Amino acid sequence: MEAFVSLANGLSVAIQPMNLLFALIGVLLGTAVGVLPGIGPALTVALLLPITFKLDPAGSIIMFAGIYYGGMYGGSTTAILINTPGESASMATALEGNKMAKAGRGGPALATAAIGSFVAGTIATLGLTFLAPYLVDIAVSFGPEDYFALMCVAFVTVSATFGDSPVRGLTSLAIGLLLGLIGIDILSGQSRLSFGVPELYDNIEVTTLAVGLFAVGEALYVASRRHVHEEKLEAVRGSLWMTKEDWKRSWKPWLRGTAFGFPIGALPAGGAEIPTFLSYSTEKRLTKYPDEFGKGAIEGVAGPEAANNAAAAGTLVPLLTLGLPTSATAAMMLAGFQQYGLNPGPLLFADQPNLVWGLIASLFIANAMLLVLNLPLVGLWVKLLAIPQPWLYAGILVFATMGTIAANPSPVELIMLTIFGVLGFLMRRFDFPIAPVVVGLILGPIAESQLRRALSISLGDPMVLMQSPISATLLVIAAIALILPFFLKGLSRFKAVED
Amino acid sequence: MSTSPRRRVDVAGLAIALILLVLAGIVWWDMTKLQILSPYDLGPKVMPIVVSGGLVLLAIGNAIGALRGDLPARDSLDWTPIVLILGGLAALIILIAVGGGFMIGTALLFATTSTAFGRRAFVTDFIIGAVIAVFVYVLFAKLLTLSLPAGPLERLF
Amino acid sequence: MSQFRKGLWRSAIAAAAVAGFVTSAAAQMELKIMAPAAPGGGWDQTARSMQQALTQSGTAKSVQVTNVPGAGGSIGIAQLVNNSKGDGNQLMVMGYVMVGALLTNNSPVTLAQTTPIARLTTEYEAIVVPANSPIKDAKDLAAAIKADPAKVTWAGGSAGGVDHIAAALFAKAAGADPTKINYIPFSGGGEALAAILGGKVTAGISGYGEFESQVKAGKLRLIGLTSAKKTANVDVPSIKEQGIDLEIANWRAVVAPPGISADQKKALTEVVDKLAKSKEWQEILKAKGWEDAYISGDAFAKILADEQTRTKEVLTAVGLVKS
Fold this sequence. Notes:
The complex is a heterotrimer of chains A (499), B (157) and C (323). Chain A is mostly helical and 499 residues long. In chain A, 74% of the residues lie in helices and 1% in strands. In chain A, helix 4 (57-82) packs antiparallel against helix 13 (328-339) and helix 4 packs parallel to helix 15. Chain C has eleven helices and ten strands.
């Protein structure tokens, strides 16, 4: 009840005209930077800090919240329309979303992404309002062994992105794991597979890999086949809006995506990528239309998008309750708080209730604002697909390279982008799935370092993995998820024999 | 539109298997140079060993697939657009490396890519690319004070 | 349509920013400051804060910040030494972390090749334990490490960084073998803090700013700071005052390229001297919670040289640098 009163107070802060304006500027700026790969909300907030120094604290923190949510929307718009995930968390969206866009269903894809984000963002913000104090205790008790077990669950479920051939899927995953080895090993400080090139010490940037494989690789592939296979893009086929059928197929994935995104986002080392993969895999398993997956299934957009936004709200749980910045953007928001002499942490809710509840309320407002802004724009966005193909792909390449240089103005980064583009081209040509490469790059290093941390703490005793109840439960889930498909297959065969 | 009837042995598939084997070797070789520093840490070598071993197994798997010839059919390749696009990217990289700035490079990349997709208006497209580059420069360099690679053109702003 | 409006809005802001640049043209120097890190990090914030204070106070005519991220500053310093030789308008922000990073990365370029200008700020390392830990002070911690270094797990930043070095120095000062410490590097400040709060590790070590709010809220117990004497912002005596001979600080400084003339060096030092004294800089220090540690000229050059020697010793002892 107390939370309700505080939230109402917060809303009264957030709907002051000036703060609404800050929220609007935030979501517009966030959307703009979100569409550029390499430039994310974190960088934008960092660069705006000196400018907002003179502004009122509530206003500028509300603006940062708008940038945060806006970035999520922008990232998925480009993922759907031009197969260029603006952020690593939008990668799962690109898988089905871009296929939908190419089939003339960009409108429903964007709509389910926007509405799903809104639904997930709203539920997750409610979760932040009411559950934060309880959730944070669980989040903090998550140890390295538990993260490792979570990664095991993730590894088992990503097989959903493998496509038809397990050998080719695993090959892609192994390439991702190999790329994940490149750079300085965080636990020992030694560089691996860097061959003395200092630019490689900082590990491969996920967005550089994703953009290279998806955008550059696809441009090369489509261009190389133009003489035999003219790609025809229809901007709109069927309804521009979501049909009744689309709604029916979307609402459950939204809720399931939220259920993945919010708690994992609240974990200090959870991140937004893992819940999007988990959501994608779950939707692929549960769907009534398995044939559509890989060709543009709406569930594959609705789920990951919801997970992505819910995770963003989840990140604010440890930030506001403990002062724990668990993502780059959260770290910049922390810097924003500190600039005004506010110390996020256990005392922030007590010391600065107006500000905290104003921020939470403005999350609701930013979310609603993004929905209102984005839905009418769907029609405009899909027109992008009507741009003549040469300009469209030229524009995609310019976007991809610009985002990369803006974040890191070094030719080496661009060389990597080009190499990943060629890799993406070859993988398409020889029918290797692309997504597992990125999945391997993200999951591999986390799984490795968390296992090593767990074993360092336990002085090498592997039983630590079974002693933690969270870890033991997750490992059992992973084992079931691994065995169940074989068992079900056997069962259906058995049944077939019976019949 | 597969040009030749499916061969029994897919040479490209065998080449992929060979590449995977070479990668496994590189990962292994790199691993041997690492040291275990902390007495409690599992060490940086375990993951490379796992990856290297996995790559060897997958190389065998891919080789078997290639020998059976069960790789999907491929279209014939048109190399011209690939060379054009990669050329545009290479030009951008070289221009940035030698301090020519990113504007010219970006405009060039835009024009070569649109040529690769069949347009025959190099100069027009070059100008369009340049306009986009200027817009982005103003946005990043002036509003967000990011340092983009500068060359003679950028210094005019 | 809205795209267009956004564009207009942006160019308006951009124009305003440019205008602001021109009107503050009071002093002579057109400085370039390189932050050898990506935008947003500590070195970048230092560079951009310098830019803000220098232009607002009119100490410099213009200041341009560039970012050259990568490998703990190894890429930035290589560019400074190779491409900016003799450039009297160029500065580079650096810090203690770079000393270690250059050593562990086997960088071909060293800090000895740069021209030291001045140290600007400092942050002391803090050692904390969970609030319910039986360890009450530095003596308890030292005793625990001496008894069995394996059982004392440390959470901190990346291997070979300032946190790791400080933990190794603590063990050494406590009379234990620094190569036997059970130091567990975490990737971000938040992740290490979560591990400490969750009681997964014995102790945590990082800049005090990371822990301050948790210590004030009573969730973590501060064992002490690595300063020489107790600082005003904490209630606990420094680790050195508790009898463990450990003093280390994560400082930030500026250096200039090699090969600049004595006059150029003097001019740069004067500008930075003025910056350090300016009202604008002092305000920024206060807002960001940075401790002023200004030392310029030969005194700073000596500190830089000493830190390199000491860091090399520690990193060689823990095996990160081959002797």
